[in-house]
Amino acid sequence: MAYVASIKIFDAIFSAIFKQPTFTDYSAATIFLLLVSGIIIASVMGLISLKLTLPQLTRYFIILLVLYVVGFANNIMEYYFFSTATIIRILHESVYMLSAHLAVATIIFFLFQPTHVTENLTTHLKEYFAQRSFSSWIWRFIVAALLYFVIYLTFGAIVSPIVLPYHHDPSLGLELTLERALSFNVIIPLEFMRGLIYTIVLLPIIVVSKMQGQELIFWLGTILTLVGAVAPLLSNQQWPIILRVVHGLEITADSFTFSYILSKLFGMSSMK
Predict the structure, then answer these.
(1) Can you give the residue ranges of every domain in the chain?
(2) In this structure, what DSSP letter does residue 268 have?
(3) pLDDT value at residue 154
(4) Cα(178)–Cα(168) distance, rounded to whole angstroms?
(5) What is the pLDDT of residues 117-139, one digit of tens each?
(6) Exposed, middle or buried, 185 (CB in 10 Å: 0-12/13-18/19+)?
(7) Which of 33, 36, 43, 101 could join 235 in a cystine, given CB atoms 3.0 to 4.6 angstroms apart?
(8) DSSP per residue over 54-80, as a string?
(9) Per-residue DSSP letters for 137-172?
């Protein structure tokens, strides 16, 4: 309920400030879907919170960072380049969603607390990065970002025959444009940056949780899929159901493939 209430309240507040229309009609169906989305987000990030044996403020920051970046910011960055949305509209949505995620992160933080606290994040990171040379880490981050682009392009090409007709249909009012989306001058640096952002944001979870192998792949993939795709798409009633389902399947494939790459490049088992 907190997720639904925070989105509705902050949407109304910042719509008035930015003089923009609210993003949904908040019908009974929309509220129900937002409620389901909130349960999904809270369940996933709550279980992740239990694995973050860090001082409280650091744990809260990581929860908020993952929620906001994976669940919204990295997607809205792509949407800005692939749509006709104005910068004011993007800023409006960014501010109100940050406010909503602050509220949700606070609730997750208090409800899902680990049984013990170990070293602070700085100590964890120092020990982690000390296991390889600087150049070794640099090429791993670059490879992760490049492979994210390759994965994105591959699965995007697979679903394109289904989704492109919707993107081309102006009657749906999706505000999508293919001119920049199909330009490699835009898509290569954009998706490289998004892959790099995902890697950096998820790295504290990899380092602190000490998860390895299939467990690490499962949880990273679950975060990227459920928090980053399923929850947002579920409540996005502006998009036709078929478009949401196909993009959801596409992002699921993206997410678990990329999670496998991250586990190989950055997982604890790769240190051996």
Answers:
(1) 2-112+120-271
(2) G
(3) 96
(4) 8
(5) 887 899 999 999 999 999 999 99
(6) exposed
(7) 33
(8) S-HHHHHHHHHHHHHIIIIIHHHHHHH
(9) HHHHHHHHHHHHHHHHHHHHHHHHHHHHHHHH-GGG
